[in-house]
Design a protein that fits this description.
This protein is an alpha/beta fold. It folds into 3 domains: 8-51, 434 Repressor (Amino-terminal Domain); 63-162 and 294-323, 3-Layer(aba) Sandwich (Rossmann fold), CATH 3.40.50; 164-291, Response regulator (Rossmann fold, 3-Layer(aba) Sandwich), CATH 3.40.50. It contains 12 helices and 12 strands. The chain has helices at residues 8-15, 19-26, 34-47, 53-60, 76-91, 105-117, 132-140, 164-176, 192-208, 225-237, 248-260, 294-309; strands at 65-70, 95-100, 122-125, 145-148, 159-161, 182-186, 218-220, 242-245, 270-273, 288-291, 318-320, 324-326. Helix 1 (8-15) packs across helix 2 (19-26). The protein is elongated and about 80 Å long. It starts with 7 loop residues before the first helix and ends in a 6-residue tail after the last strand.
């Protein structure tokens, strides 16, 4: 018998029971005699019957799937968040469907629409910028959505983040002890985390230490190792002797680029990066970093989403998780 054509009817007929009984066994209903349950499970295994999730979703109006939109799954920051999402999803019997948006605004809208068309029960959105187009799509749907590692200053959507402004402020203060010219290396400034939160924290710290703000010390780049590497010459030419960097892969590129240019780390140049992903320990010297609870950012977002999907009471729709700092060899 072709397992693609096997239905609940085939299992019921083979086991000599009703389809309702098979359904109760599949859904672990206790109102089934143990002998009957064993017989049905034996037939299910022998026929290799797999319940049709789509058909079950149509009946229950739930698909038990959750969509996860990620800008770059190869980036260790997003990979760590995705692991947290997946673990909690599994705990609550949900399957996640990951869609990679390639950090492209148009593709982001496309993948969100694709996931929503698949009738996902909820959506976790990990993006850099909440564009007007994305906001429009989110406002049209009744599907619960939670942001993770994404700031919504209009507070329209539930979210899980750290205090990026405070974290950047603290990192800048740490560097201001030994440095007069501190660079800030950011991802796209259109992203509120960069253009508002991190920039504000940096400016506040400079002001507190009597250091003047210079636009020439703020660098905007894509989140990639290669872009960090290419940035090294410009950062060195700016006269900066330290940098706060918004992404670990960019920080590794900057570190290697500066070393290639004969700059001694940390004697001539100090670096503090932002995420404390595992790659911060792979470099020599290791990278000092703001310590974000990466796994928890994903896990807490998924738990918040399960509450929204099940219409449970929610104490706080905008969760701020604590951050810390890890000192390694890239700072004095």
């Amino acid at each position: 018998m072709d397992n693609e054509t096997i239905t609940i009817y085939d299992v019921a007929r083979e086991a000599g029971v009703s389809m309702a009984t098979v359904s109760r066994v599949i859904n672990r209903n206790q109102n089934v005699k143990e002998a009957t349950r064993r017989k049905v499970l034996e037939v299910i295994e022998r026929l290799d019957y797999r319940p049709n999730a789509v058909a079950r979703g149509l009946a229950s109006k739930k698909t038990t799937t959750v969509g996860v939109v990620i800008p770059d799954i190869s980036n260790s920051y997003f990979a760590s968040l995705a692991r947290g999402i997946d673990d909690i999803a599994s705990m609550y019997k949900y399957t996640i469907v990951i869609a990679n948006s390639d950090d492209d605004a148009d593709k982001e809208v496309q993948v969100v629409n694709t996931l929503l068309s698949k009738q996902v029960d909820g959506l976790v959105f990990l993006g850099h910028d909440l564009s007007d187009e994305i906001r429009s799509e989110f406002s049209r749907t009744r599907t619960p959505i939670v942001l993770s590692g994404t700031v919504d200053h209009e507070n329209q959507l539930p979210s899980v983040n750290i205090d990026y402004r405070l974290a950047t402020h603290e990192a800048t203060v740490a560097l201001a002890k030994n440095n007069q010219r501190i660079a800030l290396v950011l991802g796209p400034m259109i992203d509120a985390i960069n253009g508002k939160d991190r920039l504000a924290g940096y400016q506040e710290a400079l002001s507190e230490h009597g250091l003047s703000f210079s636009e020439g010390l703020v660098f905007e780049t894509k989140y990639s190792y290669k872009d960090g590497l290419k940035l090294a010459d410009r950062v060195k030419s700016s006269g900066a002797t330290a940098a706060v960097v918004a992404d670990d892969e960019v920080a590794v590129g900057l570190l290697n680029g500066l070393i290639n240019n004969g700059v001694a780390i940390p004697e001539d140049f100090e670096i503090i990066t932002a995420n404390n992903s595992e790659i911060t320990e792979f470099t020599r010297p290791g990278l000092s970093s703001i310590k974000q609870p990466l796994y928890d950012l994903g896990a807490v977002a998924m738990r918040l989403l399960t509450k929204l999907m099940n219409k449970e009471a929610i104490d706080d729709q905008h969760v701020i998780l604590p951050h810390d700092f890890v000192k390694r060899g890239s700072t004095k």
